[in-house]
Amino acid sequence: MIYNPQHRNKDRAARVSMALLRLAQAIKTINQEESAEFELSPVQIQALLFVQHTREDMATVGNFTKMIGSSHVTAVKVLNGLASKGLIRKIPNPADRRVTRLTLTNNGELAASKLDQWGNTLGQIVETLEEAQLEQLETGLGAIISSLNRQGRLVVAEPCLGCVHFRPHAAEGPSPHFCRLIQKYLTHEASLQECPEHTEAL
Ligand code: SF4
Fold first, then answer.
1. Which of 1, 6, 38, 185 is the most exposed place for a label (fewest CB within 10 A)?
2. Phi, psi of 72 (to 5 degrees)
């Protein structure tokens, strides 16, 4: 029989895809168990973390919708649930009715500050891997995430560094960095916060 490396690669890719599907199912179950401890659903926790870590002007209903990859209606339902629990505030933009910003209330900040432990179960499992295994996993998963990101199937919120739109130290003064996408100067602190529009420079 003639050895064909392409077939071998295809077989391995099929096995890895199956492993990723199983992992996704297991992670979903773990997330549900952990979220129940906070009396929130996994997607409500994602929303709180999104508002907590995303730069103020980018923490919008639209960007949250993109991040969870759902319909606008589903995202609004999730956010309305958090608003009725008094954890987030929805702030319409009078200059653009399509944009609604999100902020945490005091109770929301308190709830978000307790979420450090969320995701710990998975972290503890990953920690048991050998360093070399972890390194390979990090590289492989990073490549899959980048590919999904490029295809528009996954939003990865990141700080400005490494973004194609970022022009660091473009000016003097308290807001030295410039974003070509939103045409705005940013403080150094703002550039360190997560932005869902981050587009990796190739
Ligand atoms: S430079 Fe990139 S990451 Fe920073 S605000 Fe602009 S789009 Fe977002």
1. 1
2. -60, -40
**What is the residue extent of each domain of the chain?**
5-151, 155-202
DSSP state of 158: B
Q: Determine the straight-line distance between the first and last CA of the chain, rounded to whole angstroms.
A: 41
pLDDT for the residue 103? 97
**For residue 16, which phi and psi values (nearest 5 degrees)?**
-65, -40
Q: Is 18 in the pocket of ligand 1 (CB under 6 A)?
A: no
Spacing, Cα 35 to ligand 1 middle (Å): 30
Tell me which residue has its CA closest to atom 2 in ligand 1.
Answer: 198
- The CATH class given to the 5-151 domain equals mainly alpha
pLDDT in tens, 17-42: 999 999 999 999 999 999 998 999 99
For residues 125-133, give the mean pLDDT: 95
